[in-house]
Amino acid sequence: MGIDNLKPWEHPEIKGASEVQYISGYALSLALLGLSLLLVRAHAGTTVVLVSLISFISILTVIAQLILLFHLDFSESQRWNTLTLMLNVPLLILSVGLTSFMFHTLYTHVMLPAMTVR
Amino acid sequence: MSTTSGHGQGSDPSKAVLWAESDHEHDIISTRLLGFWLYMLSDSLIFAALFTAYEVLTYNTSIAGGPTPAEVASPIRAYIETIVLLTSVLAFGLSMIALKRDRPRMVMAWMAVSALIGIGFLGMEWTELAGLAARGSTPQRSGYLSIFFTLIAVHGIHIAIGLLWMGVMLAQVARSGLTALVVYRMANLKIFWLYQALIWTFVFTFVYLRGSV
Amino acid sequence: MVDLQGPWTPLLGRLTLQEIPFDSPIVFGAFAFAATLAVIIIGLLTYYRGWGILWRDWLTSVDHKRIGIMYLIVGGVLLFRGFIDAVMMRTQQVMAAGPASPGYLGAEHGYLPPYHYDQVYGSHGTIMLIFAATPILAGFMNYLLPLQIGARDMAFPYLNSVALWMTAVGAGLVMLSLFVGDFSQAGWVGLTPLTEMSYSPDVGVDYWAWALEIGSIGTTLGAVNIIATIIKMRAPGMTWFRLPLFTWTALTTNVIGLTAFPVLGVALGLLLLDRYIGTHFFTTGFGGNFMLYTDLFWIWGHPEVYFIILPAWGMMSEIIPTFSEKPLFGYTVMVAATLSIGCISWTVWLHHFFTMGAGPIVNVFYSISTMLVSIPTGVKVFNWAFTMFRGRLTFTTPMLWAVSAIFMQLIGGLTGMMLAIPAINYMTHNTVFVIAHFHCVAMVTIFASVAGITFWFPKATGFKLDEASGQLVFWLFMAGTFTVFTAMFGLGFDGMPRRLAYIPYASWRPLMIVEEFGILLYCGSIAAFIYQIVVSVRNRAHNLVDVDAWGTTRSLEWMTHSPVPAYNFAVIPHVNARDEWAWRRDNGLADMLPEHYEDIEVPLNTPVPMFLGIATAGFGFAMVWRIWWLAAVSLAAVFIIIIIRSFGGTTGTVIPADAVRRTEQASRRKRRQNADNVLGDGVMAFAVKPRA
Ligand code: HEM
Ligand SMILES: [Cu+2]
């Protein structure tokens, strides 16, 4: 295969790695998740607020990891990989979101009130 | 009705190039990386489905008088696990940097470090589940515990497979050095390993933290 | 571990001699039939010294064309099995209508006891959707995609073979359940909590679930391969908006496959956990929620039905323009419609359980999203119609099938719209009206597949199928379809429930007799099809074709020889237009040959995927019967095989440029001779006269 004449470690998808990115990705992830932990331990806010906050932080963390650890971007070599990953987002939202929508509605309709409380 | 209409971007037939210069280079590293990303897409849908089930099975009906999420999932312990897993990921990242610099020994050394820390993480997941079961909170106790155990166990199985893969790659780097085949496998393994940390972010947030909100 | 009813031994698990139903005459007949067939095949192979060919050219091959054909064969065999199931069910129902109906063979009414009828019912659906339609479409995609985009093979030829073997193992498990043990009695959808251990204590559900799990691994791997192929392997000049429409639909379908099948895997996996270690996901006590299963199943299930229909639409979009001698009308809109159907298919799944009672808000949401599908679907129907409008139509067999597929699409789609209205759905849900609906849409896939077989058969073999008998097959099948399903819609309006082994009202009998008559027409059509194959093979010398079998074809696959050589294209074409081949033909470039040839690298054959298949089959069988040691050994074997192979060396070999040139010239010479022969016999080479 033609790839043999190229040094494999010089491939664009390998060359992208850098210490700074890995270390900052590591630190940032831990810091963000630590923040979530603190918020929850301190009960900083109502349930709805807290859940929204930690969800938001987890999304930030994931984005940080994707950029800093996976080196995903829209460059020629990464474009399709990034698109593939982005396809996850709507599917995750649809399956989890619509399901909880339907079961939440279902439980309020057909279950004993005592059982619906979460 | 001419058949030519609607050919879209048809070029001038008299000047057209009809044959490719040579077989266009198939860059196996990027093709296989894309293949692996596609596989990871389906793998993450496994977790999406599990999270869907988790969402439904955390209602009171599913807790069925058994232990509640707050009693089962300890966020502090989970945060320690997070630190361990991310450290393993960092070590793997350093291994990839050694790879970029064509230093097979460093590649192996960092990968071994990453694997050792990974084993530690797996051990933590294991003791957590075993401890719960020993206290009578088995997966057979309630729908909620069923999904809790399954979610963690599926993540653990992924970790175990990643560790096995690291062992294989250690042998392959030692045996054949950094050939194209070894390099693309390392790159795939990196995606796989980092992905477990990414999934863990959601597990940490929506299982452990959410449970004690 | 859960408590089992019945014996269990460490060596054989739940397997005992009683599990082999010697006593059932029907199963015994099936076994005799299968055994005879096997003996005949083994005999023929030995007589014609076919074993080496079978091993070298087929079982170990990683050539996408051969893999495609093997997929089609697996699908075809299972299609036949599913058809037999259908005949059995229809016959049972017509015999068991009304309290006065007599019983035979130990059944109270009809000839199948409910216990047996339900297994036939469950296996029919499972087989038709997962192990017939899906492999047949996978076969088409494997065969055609690399050719349509101008590639030498798939992106991952070895993975391709693994995917085939996984599908075959899944199909094999379903077939095995006929002779060893039982099959699921809970329908193809696996109705919870009926599938739980307490209600289905035998191995039927396990067979069903493991077969699906293993088969869907195959589908997922195949999807990875096909998507990567389309993205990475296109010939130079093959831009996105020059891709043939079949390729677009294959892309969309496989994105659906890749993302939906894991959800099925999880749904079944959780069910299996319930059955094997006693968790409470879908049980009725201890906090299980059996509607969660229904939810997960249909998250996969609805995208899956589009998985099945999209490639069919793709094939129709290739065939209709060819026999209208016009480019496809509204290509860009067709692409957009395909993609948007792919997206919408992910948002509608609750329409399969409107009656769950989630209430008006949820139901209205899903009702509206379901109805949105009709927009792109309608667009497609109109585009096909406009393609034919003022075209030069030739009604060859493929065209007949393709055009009728549009009619089936209309009926199926419109009844689907009716079902999508919750108020109507509450009346029709779980009646045979639903059955009639989805058979009409599934028929689109069947019609398009038969159209595809007839259309691309000459590409794969070098000769066409017999036209006259092909038309007979078509008309019989069409008549059968209308007879069966018109009557079934009627019964649906009457409120007849689905899944009945005994029909309480004798008043439903007349329409069921009509259905049985339709089934006879179907049987006639199958017979005619077998006759067609025999005649075509016997008279193949009269039906030989050149590269462009129909004379009016459009896409790249028609540029290379029929049958296609191992390397597909001697030199990869440079694409200049959408419908490149039609463009070359219209501009007088069809006979242009490349100036020089180069070495071509092709992948080596490998038996490893077959070994993986065997190990997986062992695992599946062991898990069904709970033979733990065998399961552990097989699973370890799978891992070891994968690891050992990853240490392997070369996987490719080179066909030298000289050899390529010789093959090319020889096949051109042969083609000329063929043409002479055919003219010498005074028989027209083409049913459709090629237009210069
Ligand atoms: C035009 C768009 C379509 C609409 C609006 C539609 C709508 C529906 C609805 C509402 C149901 C549920 C009926 C019930 O159980 O009460 C249903 C069932 C079904 N549809 Fe469709 N459908 C469409 C196209 C298709 C296609 C293209 C296929 C696949 C070939 C298909 C296959 C099925 C199957 C297999 C079932 C029944 C599953 C079962 O319960 O066993 N449908 N459809
Ligand atoms: Cu549907």
Secondary-structure element series of chain C: HHHHHHHHHHHHHHHHHEHHEH
Low-confidence stretches of chain A: none
Report the major sheet of chain C.
2 strands, antiparallel
User: Which structural class is indicated by helix and strand composition of chain A?
Assistant: mainly alpha
Counting helices, strands and paired strands, the structural category of chain C is mainly alpha
What is the 3D form of chain C? globular
Uncertain spans of chain C: 676-692
> What would the average pLDDT of chain C be, to the nearest integer?
91
What assembly state would you assign to the polypeptide chains in this entry?
Answer: heterotrimer
| Terminus-to-terminus distance of chain A | 58 Å
Largest interface: which pair? Answer: B-C, 62 and 79 residues
- Global outline of chain A: flat
Q: What Rg of chain A do the Cα atoms give?
A: 21 Å
Short description:
The complex is a heterotrimer of chains A (118), B (213) and C (692). Chain A is mainly alpha-helical. Chain A is 72% helix and 0% strand.
Description:
The complex is a heterotrimer of chains A (118), B (213) and C (692). By secondary structure, chain A is mainly alpha-helical. Chain A has helices at residues 12-15, 19-41, 47-68, 79-110, 113-116. Chain A has a domain at 18-70. Chain A is built from five helices and no strands. Chain A is flat, with a radius of gyration of 21 Å. The relative contact order of chain A is 0.08. Chain B has helices at residues 28-56, 60-63, 69-72, 75-100, 104-134, 143-176, 180-211. Chain B has 213 residues and is mostly helical. The interface between A and C is medium-sized, with 16 and 21 residues. Residues 302, 305, 348, 351-352 of chain C line the site of copper (II) ion.
